[in-house]
Amino acid sequence: MAYDYDKLYRDTPDALGAPSPAFTGFFEELGTQSLDVLDAGCGQGRDALFIARLGHRVTGIDISPHGIRDMLAAAQRENLDVTGIAADLTTWAPDKD
Length: 97
Ligand SMILES: C[S@@+](CC[C@H](N)C(=O)[O-])C[C@H]1O[C@@H](n2cnc3c(N)ncnc32)[C@H](O)[C@@H]1O
Known about the structure:
By secondary structure, this protein is an alpha/beta fold. It has a domain at about 35-90: 3-Layer(aba) Sandwich (Rossmann fold). About 40% of the residues lie in helices and about 15% in strands. The protein is built from four helices and three strands, in the order H-H-E-H-E-H-E. It has helices at about 5-10, 20-30, 45-55, 65-80; strands at about 35-40, 55-60, 80-85. Helix 3 (about 45-55) links the parallel strand 1 (about 35-40) and strand 2 (about 55-60). The protein is globular. It binds S-adenosylmethionine. S-adenosylmethionine (SAM) binds next to helix 3.
């Protein structure tokens, strides 16, 4: 049985802590203009929010509605360019436009 991330996120703010140094280092060294980034399985958005703070546009998708809720609330507080989609990535397909 799959781990219930939605229950974890429902009960625990910031459940997975800060992004890993390897992850943050990669994006900090990218040194590029604003990108469109897809975070597949974004959870509560710890990575998506970090990326958006660097000036990129991020779409985060997760099957957990509580994860998406928390990510969008944080993005709104900081006025970050983050779109959240609660969907199952095994069946989700992007809009054509
Ligand atoms: C280990 S967590 C990592 C979350 C996030 N990337 C992070 O580092 O904080 C895996 C995530 O994948 C999501 N997930 C698992 N299966 C999924 C599916 N079929 N579609 C969308 N999200 C899924 C879970 O809800 C969970 O948030």
